[in-house]
Amino acid sequence: MALVLFLLFLAATAQGKGRFRLGGLDFEHSEHRHSSLAPAPAPAPDPAPLTFFEVSKPLSIPRSGHCATLLLLKHSFGNTISSPPVTAPYNPPRSSHCGGGWERVILRWSVASRGRQFDRISAAWLSGVEIFRTCTAEPTKQGIVWSVEKDITKYTSLLEKPQVLAVSLANVIDKTYTGFFNVTLTAEFYKPAQRNSKRSSKAMPADLVLPIALPTSENGGYWFQLQNSSHVGTVNLTSLPRNIYKAELEVCVSFHGDDEFWYTNPTNDYLDANGESSSGSRNGPYREVLVTLDGKLVGEICPFPVIYTGGVNPLFWRPAAAIGAFNLPTYILDVTPFVGQLVDGNSHEISLSVTNAVRNWLLDANLHLWLDHGSSQTSGKLISYSSPPAVISYDSHYKGLDGTLLLSASRSLQYSGYVESSSHGKLITTSSYSYKFSNQMVFSENGSVSTVKQLIDAQTKFLVESSSKQVRLQQKSSSYPFFLYNSQKDGTNKSVVLDARISHGLQEEYDDDSFWSRLNNKQDTAGKIVIQANIVTSGTGKLNQTYVSESSEGCYHRSIRTSNTTTQYDESGFRCIASA
């Protein structure tokens, strides 16, 4: 029986192995081949490598001034698929005028590659704390370069002391896949500021950051590698400080293998009815990352559907990567209401899992703790907790391979607790989370044509109050619209022709007492590729992207248009304009 859509044959995905899938498709570099009807021209000098990028707002440079640049790692990742991460000692800047409390620390990840290679997931940890996760670009025969910048100031407490840096990038080198990834990782430090703005004082980094991860990186990294919904990554925390007054969990997520395109996975009843019960890409499109503390749910996350650089049609993402691919998002949970529990001197368990997961999800988290330096012991208590189960509805109408699957879900979570400390008094924190999820799949022409329309809307709210006033209110709303059209038809010489269109975006609104921001980031793509023997032999890919960021600190916008590795239009600026 013909497969339902290329969403099913993409199920053959596996990191480090040759596979035919929606993501990580390989090119035969047909743009460099010459017609057999004419002699090949004389060899030309190697062209300059192409520069790839992800559209984002440039990081601002503090007025305090630059004080140091450290080379953290310089390494060529070759056949590393079965190797543990590369490690290097980290030591903070030595100069007396750059000794800590920096206004900003910027991590710069720079890569060069040439040849043929799949996209690969990579991450960097400091003593088990994840500070960066990224997907590599797929190189070309001409060669490519790209760099990513990330503000890592939040990890200052780690950066101020010697640590062990570990970088994982599982790559394969053989006769077919020849692309090494030559990585240079640096950190730029900026002098301590005068702390004269309200936002600077409220954004003080945590005093301590602890890894919620594997204790060793020998098995490819510190992340938990979850294979199904019953697989749970758990850390038992002992000897926590007794003077915590604020606590946040930063959750790091990426999805791979049979769940790389979880939002396109058909439901099991549809697969089984069509003789596809052995398909790995199953369990439907609904996923949520669940975080528990001592058995209580403290976080429920519907993640942003990041598309890696080989995803659907690799030409879509040359030279501009999909949203979030070069700097994967993390998700913040304010667990301060549980501080009274954390400072009781007992051990505590934090667990991570994924609803409906199939292999494989890479998860870990960082626990950020702020300490009351005016006392050795704080106290507190959870005073309210509400965690109703997710509300899920499913409706399907199909006959054979053609029909419609509609799944929706929603969930809310809220908890409140107080913390009492000598420096801050008695403060009550209320953390609220909610999301709405909807996904519609439509199959036609005996399953060879499909559309996926999905929307995730998520809200978080953190409220801090004293007995007499509101101390802080932080609110964030996020929306992830996604649409995919796909047509899979037989071509000549046993080839497959894939015609695809994607429209997806990231919309965010953030407000706190002294800062607000708005982001509208949208990409639209269209193109066709011809595949023979798991190799893309020819194709087209076009992308239009608009990025509009506005905040109380200024604005930035950028609009680009690309086609088959060529940037046809690129306009940007820092003026404030109407949101796209």
In terms of topology, how is this protein built?
Elements (H helix, E strand, L loop, with lengths): L5 H4 L16 E2 L22 E2 L14 E12 L8 E5 L13 E10 L7 E6 L2 E7 L8 E8 L4 H4 L3 E7 L11 E10 L7 H5 L5 E5 L11 E3 L6 E5 L6 E12 L12 H6 L15 E5 L2 E6 L28 E5 L4 H4 L5 E7 L6 E11 L7 E8 L4 E9 L2 E20 L3 E20 L4 E17 L4 E21 L5 E16 L4 E17 L2 E17 L2 E10 L2 E8 L7
Parallel strand pairs: 1-28, 2-8
Antiparallel strand pairs: 3-10, 4-9, 5-8, 5-10, 6-7, 6-9, 11-19, 12-19, 13-18, 14-17, 14-19, 15-16, 15-18, 20-22, 21-22, 22-23, 23-24, 24-25, 25-26, 26-27, 27-28, 28-29, 29-30
Largest sheet: 12 strands, mixed
Helix content: under 10%
The beta-strand count equals: 30
Tally of helical runs: 5
Radius of gyration: 24 Å
Distance between the termini: 44 Å
Shape: globular
Proportion of residues in β-strands: over 45%
Mean pLDDT: 90
Query: Uncertain runs with pLDDT below 50, 5 residues or more?
Result: 1-22, 27-40, 196-201
- Summing up helix and strand content along with how strands pair, one would put the structural category as mainly beta
